[in-house]
Design brief:
7 strands, seven-stranded mixed sheet, alpha/beta, 6 helices, binds inosine 5'-triphosphate, Maf protein
Amino acid sequence: MSSNILFASSNKNKFDEASKILSNFKINLEFFKSDLIEIQDDSISDIASQKVKDAFNKSQKPIIVEDDGLFIDSLNGFPGPYSSFIFKTIGNNGILELVSSNRTAKFVSVIAYSDGKNIEIFESSIKGKISDKPRGDGWGYDPIFIPENQNQTYAELTNKNQISHRYESLSKFASWFLNRQE
Ligand code: ITT
Protein backbone atom coordinates (compact mmCIF):
# COMPACT_ATOMS: atom_id res chain seq x y z
CA MET A 1 0.00 0.00 0.00
CA SER A 2 1.45 3.33 -0.99
CA SER A 3 -0.54 5.88 1.02
CA ASN A 4 -2.67 6.38 4.08
CA ILE A 5 -5.65 8.68 3.87
CA LEU A 6 -8.50 9.16 6.32
CA PHE A 7 -12.13 8.66 5.25
CA ALA A 8 -14.54 10.62 7.44
CA SER A 9 -18.11 9.43 7.78
CA SER A 10 -20.77 8.42 10.26
CA ASN A 11 -21.55 5.48 7.95
CA LYS A 12 -19.26 2.45 8.25
CA ASN A 13 -20.81 0.85 5.13
CA LYS A 14 -19.54 3.70 3.00
CA PHE A 15 -16.06 3.37 4.46
CA ASP A 16 -15.99 -0.42 3.97
CA GLU A 17 -16.88 -0.10 0.29
CA ALA A 18 -14.51 2.84 -0.30
CA SER A 19 -11.70 0.98 1.39
CA LYS A 20 -12.18 -2.13 -0.80
CA ILE A 21 -12.38 -0.03 -3.96
CA LEU A 22 -9.25 2.03 -3.20
CA SER A 23 -7.22 -1.03 -2.18
CA ASN A 24 -7.31 -1.96 -5.90
CA PHE A 25 -5.33 1.23 -6.48
CA LYS A 26 -2.99 0.50 -3.54
CA ILE A 27 -4.41 3.38 -1.54
CA ASN A 28 -5.00 2.56 2.10
CA LEU A 29 -7.94 4.19 3.91
CA GLU A 30 -8.43 4.60 7.63
CA PHE A 31 -11.88 5.15 9.12
CA PHE A 32 -12.36 8.51 10.85
CA LYS A 33 -15.79 8.09 12.42
CA SER A 34 -17.40 11.49 12.67
CA ASP A 35 -20.76 13.23 12.44
CA LEU A 36 -19.75 16.02 10.11
CA ILE A 37 -21.46 19.35 9.62
CA GLU A 38 -23.84 18.82 6.70
CA ILE A 39 -25.24 22.05 5.27
CA GLN A 40 -28.65 21.97 3.58
CA ASP A 41 -27.99 22.83 -0.05
CA ASP A 42 -29.22 21.87 -3.52
CA SER A 43 -25.70 20.99 -4.60
CA ILE A 44 -24.14 17.74 -3.45
CA SER A 45 -20.67 19.03 -4.34
CA ASP A 46 -21.16 22.15 -2.16
CA ILE A 47 -22.28 19.89 0.71
CA ALA A 48 -19.19 17.68 0.20
CA SER A 49 -16.88 20.74 0.14
CA GLN A 50 -18.25 21.99 3.45
CA LYS A 51 -18.06 18.50 4.93
CA VAL A 52 -14.40 18.05 3.99
CA LYS A 53 -13.47 21.43 5.51
CA ASP A 54 -15.04 20.31 8.77
CA ALA A 55 -13.35 16.90 8.50
CA PHE A 56 -9.90 18.43 7.97
CA ASN A 57 -10.43 20.82 10.89
CA LYS A 58 -11.22 17.85 13.10
CA SER A 59 -8.45 15.51 11.90
CA GLN A 60 -5.65 17.83 10.71
CA LYS A 61 -4.69 15.08 8.24
CA PRO A 62 -5.31 14.47 4.52
CA ILE A 63 -8.90 13.32 4.39
CA ILE A 64 -11.73 12.21 2.11
CA VAL A 65 -15.46 12.63 2.59
CA GLU A 66 -18.22 11.42 0.30
CA ASP A 67 -21.70 12.78 -0.22
CA ASP A 68 -24.26 10.72 -2.10
CA GLY A 69 -27.74 11.32 -3.40
CA LEU A 70 -30.46 9.26 -5.01
CA PHE A 71 -32.27 11.36 -7.64
CA ILE A 72 -35.65 9.99 -8.81
CA ASP A 73 -36.81 11.43 -12.14
CA SER A 74 -40.58 11.27 -11.53
CA LEU A 75 -40.05 13.12 -8.22
CA ASN A 76 -38.02 15.90 -9.90
CA GLY A 77 -34.79 14.60 -8.38
CA PHE A 78 -36.11 14.01 -4.86
CA PRO A 79 -34.63 12.97 -2.41
CA GLY A 80 -31.33 14.13 -4.01
CA PRO A 81 -29.30 16.18 -1.50
CA TYR A 82 -31.77 15.19 1.22
CA SER A 83 -31.23 11.43 0.77
CA SER A 84 -29.75 10.87 4.20
CA PHE A 85 -32.62 12.59 6.04
CA ILE A 86 -35.27 10.94 3.87
CA PHE A 87 -33.77 7.50 4.41
CA LYS A 88 -33.90 8.05 8.17
CA THR A 89 -37.47 9.38 8.10
CA ILE A 90 -39.51 7.47 5.47
CA GLY A 91 -37.00 4.79 4.42
CA ASN A 92 -37.21 2.55 1.37
CA ASN A 93 -40.90 1.74 1.88
CA GLY A 94 -41.75 5.43 1.97
CA ILE A 95 -39.86 6.00 -1.28
CA LEU A 96 -41.62 3.05 -2.93
CA GLU A 97 -45.00 4.56 -2.05
CA LEU A 98 -44.06 7.82 -3.77
CA VAL A 99 -42.70 6.43 -7.02
CA SER A 100 -45.08 6.11 -9.96
CA SER A 101 -44.81 4.21 -13.24
CA ASN A 102 -41.69 6.11 -14.37
CA ARG A 103 -39.10 4.54 -12.08
CA THR A 104 -35.89 5.91 -13.61
CA ALA A 105 -33.36 7.39 -11.20
CA LYS A 106 -29.66 8.06 -10.74
CA PHE A 107 -27.28 7.62 -7.84
CA VAL A 108 -24.68 10.37 -7.47
CA SER A 109 -21.41 10.18 -5.53
CA VAL A 110 -19.21 13.18 -4.82
CA ILE A 111 -15.79 12.61 -3.29
CA ALA A 112 -14.09 15.62 -1.68
CA TYR A 113 -10.43 15.45 -0.68
CA SER A 114 -8.56 17.99 1.42
CA ASP A 115 -4.92 18.17 2.42
CA GLY A 116 -5.56 21.39 4.35
CA LYS A 117 -4.48 23.62 1.44
CA ASN A 118 -6.72 22.66 -1.46
CA ILE A 119 -10.04 20.91 -1.90
CA GLU A 120 -10.47 18.57 -4.86
CA ILE A 121 -13.87 17.29 -5.97
CA PHE A 122 -14.61 14.12 -7.99
CA GLU A 123 -18.17 13.43 -9.07
CA SER A 124 -19.83 10.50 -10.72
CA SER A 125 -23.28 9.09 -11.22
CA ILE A 126 -24.89 5.88 -12.36
CA LYS A 127 -28.28 5.66 -14.05
CA GLY A 128 -30.78 3.06 -12.99
CA LYS A 129 -34.30 2.56 -11.71
CA ILE A 130 -36.25 1.99 -8.51
CA SER A 131 -37.37 -1.61 -7.98
CA ASP A 132 -41.04 -2.45 -7.38
CA LYS A 133 -40.25 -3.81 -3.90
CA PRO A 134 -37.14 -4.08 -1.67
CA ARG A 135 -34.94 -6.93 -2.91
CA GLY A 136 -31.82 -8.35 -1.25
CA ASP A 137 -30.14 -7.78 2.03
CA GLY A 138 -28.22 -4.51 1.80
CA TRP A 139 -27.74 -1.19 3.53
CA GLY A 140 -29.30 2.18 2.72
CA TYR A 141 -31.03 2.35 -0.67
CA ASP A 142 -29.28 -0.82 -1.93
CA PRO A 143 -32.45 -2.99 -1.84
CA ILE A 144 -34.41 -0.61 -4.11
CA PHE A 145 -31.82 0.63 -6.66
CA ILE A 146 -31.27 -1.35 -9.87
CA PRO A 147 -28.33 0.00 -11.89
CA GLU A 148 -28.71 0.37 -15.67
CA ASN A 149 -28.12 -2.82 -17.68
CA GLN A 150 -28.73 -5.04 -14.63
CA ASN A 151 -31.73 -7.02 -13.43
CA GLN A 152 -30.75 -7.07 -9.78
CA THR A 153 -30.65 -4.40 -7.09
CA TYR A 154 -27.36 -3.17 -5.61
CA ALA A 155 -28.20 -5.39 -2.62
CA GLU A 156 -28.51 -8.50 -4.81
CA LEU A 157 -25.51 -7.87 -7.04
CA THR A 158 -22.22 -9.48 -6.07
CA ASN A 159 -20.17 -6.97 -8.07
CA LYS A 160 -21.61 -3.68 -6.74
CA ASN A 161 -18.12 -2.39 -5.89
CA GLN A 162 -16.96 -2.82 -9.49
CA ILE A 163 -19.78 -0.83 -11.07
CA SER A 164 -21.22 1.53 -8.46
CA HIS A 165 -21.46 5.34 -8.36
CA ARG A 166 -18.84 5.11 -5.58
CA TYR A 167 -16.49 3.03 -7.74
CA GLU A 168 -16.57 5.65 -10.49
CA SER A 169 -15.95 8.70 -8.30
CA LEU A 170 -13.19 6.94 -6.32
CA SER A 171 -11.50 5.78 -9.54
CA LYS A 172 -11.35 9.40 -10.66
CA PHE A 173 -9.90 10.36 -7.29
CA ALA A 174 -7.33 7.52 -7.41
CA SER A 175 -6.09 8.51 -10.89
CA TRP A 176 -5.63 12.11 -9.79
CA PHE A 177 -4.04 11.19 -6.45
CA LEU A 178 -1.58 8.64 -7.85
CA ASN A 179 -0.58 10.94 -10.75
CA ARG A 180 0.08 13.75 -8.32
CA GLN A 181 2.37 11.53 -6.25
CA GLU A 182 4.59 10.41 -9.16
P1 ITT B 1 -21.95 10.59 6.13
O1 ITT B 1 -21.71 10.66 7.59
O2 ITT B 1 -20.75 10.17 5.36
O3 ITT B 1 -22.57 11.84 5.56
P2 ITT B 1 -24.50 9.36 5.35
O4 ITT B 1 -25.02 7.96 5.51
O5 ITT B 1 -25.31 10.49 5.91
O6 ITT B 1 -23.01 9.37 5.93
P3 ITT B 1 -24.74 10.45 2.63
O7 ITT B 1 -25.38 11.71 3.12
O8 ITT B 1 -23.62 10.59 1.68
O9 ITT B 1 -24.21 9.53 3.83
O10 ITT B 1 -25.77 9.47 1.94
C1 ITT B 1 -27.07 9.80 1.61
C2 ITT B 1 -27.94 8.58 1.80
O11 ITT B 1 -27.69 7.67 0.75
C3 ITT B 1 -27.72 7.83 3.11
O12 ITT B 1 -28.98 7.43 3.62
C4 ITT B 1 -26.91 6.61 2.69
O13 ITT B 1 -27.20 5.48 3.51
C5 ITT B 1 -27.42 6.39 1.28
N1 ITT B 1 -26.38 5.77 0.43
C6 ITT B 1 -25.21 6.33 0.04
N2 ITT B 1 -24.52 5.47 -0.72
C7 ITT B 1 -25.26 4.35 -0.80
C8 ITT B 1 -25.09 3.11 -1.44
O14 ITT B 1 -23.99 2.81 -2.11
N3 ITT B 1 -26.05 2.20 -1.31
C9 ITT B 1 -27.18 2.47 -0.61
N4 ITT B 1 -27.42 3.60 0.01
C10 ITT B 1 -26.47 4.55 -0.09
